[in-house]
Amino acid sequence: MRPGQRLTRWLAGDCLQSPEGAFHPLRTGAYLVGGSPVVYNLKHIAIERNFPFFFRKLLQFNTHLERRLNLSKFQEHLDPEISYLYEKSMEAVNKFEEQLSPSDLSAKEVLRAHFCIADYFSKKGEGMGGIGPKDIGLLLSALSRQHVGFDGVQKWVTPQDKAATLMYGLIMNHPFYDANKRTAYLSTIHYLYQRGLAITITEKALEDLTVLVANNGLSKYSRFKVLKKKQDDPEVRFLSHYLRQNTRKIDKKQYLITYRELEKILKRYDVWMENPHDNQIDIMRWEEVVVPKRGLFGKQKTTKEIRRACRLGFPGWTKQVGKGRLRHVREQLNLMPEDGVDSQSFFRDVDDMRVLLEVYEGALSRLADK
Q: What does the pLDDT look like over 261-317, one tens digit per residue?
């Protein structure tokens, strides 16, 4: 297909194969060009080939649709009162979201982090001084830092740059009634994780950094002192450098799963976890067993019994499951790709935000008192 050729037919919403061989739901289309159907990845056409404005807007719409579907799933797990506040807050940021590209910081993701924290600690009996944004303008102001530039050149470009603007803006703007530091903490980790980057420092080290930012205490670092003398926005520049030094690329085959999330996944396959003891836990399931025949002419019968499939190392429900242990469980349960269960199917519906909250629960709890 060449620029300028007339596109005579558009089919949207199907999972069609792109030239790269991958299937892209909501982002693919079939075109009749000169009477022949051609299937292209929408992003490939709209951006790499610089096709008309219509296709770029359609790509943007599809991205927001995917986000909306994910957010509605998240809302199902919230308490009714928190769900109502969450929905009202989401409506307030719709116009801001329409201007974003897929790589931008999203107000809705920040709100999701905030309400995830509110719901999680509410269910634990730990109240908050208020839930939701007290000023949407302050929230959008913090997020608008990512678009700062001059003469068409963006000031903040890398994921670490944008994460730094997010972290600093949320902490200093105080857009929420409560949990501003916790929301900044979780939002920053989640944003980096979504961009393929994992934090390499301890949760306590990042917690301490969060408190320093809130207390204007970055002057303890010599690098910040130098930046303050020579550069504008020294706080954001320092945080960006700090994050670059303390993040790594995520192994694409690695999934972030806690033992609590693993338990939810296994239940889909009629498997459950029980009897945690001595840093181990049993993986149980129903198995079909043969009942011995009665007499010479008795019929062969089978019945179902509860059997232990395997035993797994168990440090606690909120701890992350190692890649080796995940593979061991799947092999023992015949839930591997060669058994017809690929990783995408096995790990579907895993909520990154909730998993990260559980992994960093200790730091988030302590930040409530700082």
A: 999 999 988 999 999 999 999 999 988 877 777 766 667 677 888 999 999 999 999
Say how far apart CA 102 and CA 16 lie, in whole Å: 21
Are 58 and 40 contacting, i.e. CB atoms less than 8 angstroms apart? no
Please list, residue by residue across 260-296, b when 16 or more beta carbons sit within 10 angstroms of its beta carbon and e when fewer do. Answer: bbbbebbeeeebebeeeeeeebbbbbeeeeeeeeeee
Q: What is the dihedral of CA 18, 21, 25, 26, to 10 degrees?
A: -20
DSSP secondary structure string for all residues of 115-163: HHHHHHHHHTT---S--SBS-HHHHHHHHHGGG-EETTEES--SHHHHH
Task: Say how far apart CA 64 and CA 28 lie, in whole Å.
Answer: 15
Structural domains of the chain, ranges and CATH numbers in brackets: 77-249 (1.20.120.1870), 259-349 (no CATH)
pTM to 2 decimal places: 0.67
Cβ atoms within 10 A of the Cβ of 101, count?
Answer: 10
Concatenated DSSP letters of 154-202: ES--SHHHHHHHHHHHHHHH--BSS-HHHHHHHHHHHHHHHTTEEE-S-
What six digits make up the tokens of 255? 């999934």
How do strand 36-41 and strand 28-33 relate by DSSP bridges? antiparallel
Q: Return the pLDDT at 72.
A: 61
- Give the tens place of pLDDT for each residue, 125-184: 888 889 999 999 999 888 888 887 777 777 888 999 999 999 999 999 999 999 999 999
Count of residues for the chain?
370
Classify 69 as helix, strand or coil. Answer: helix
Q: Are 291 and 301 in contact (CB under 8 A)?
A: yes
Question: 329: which residues sit within 8 A by CB, 6+ positions away?
Answer: 262, 266, 283, 310, 312, 335
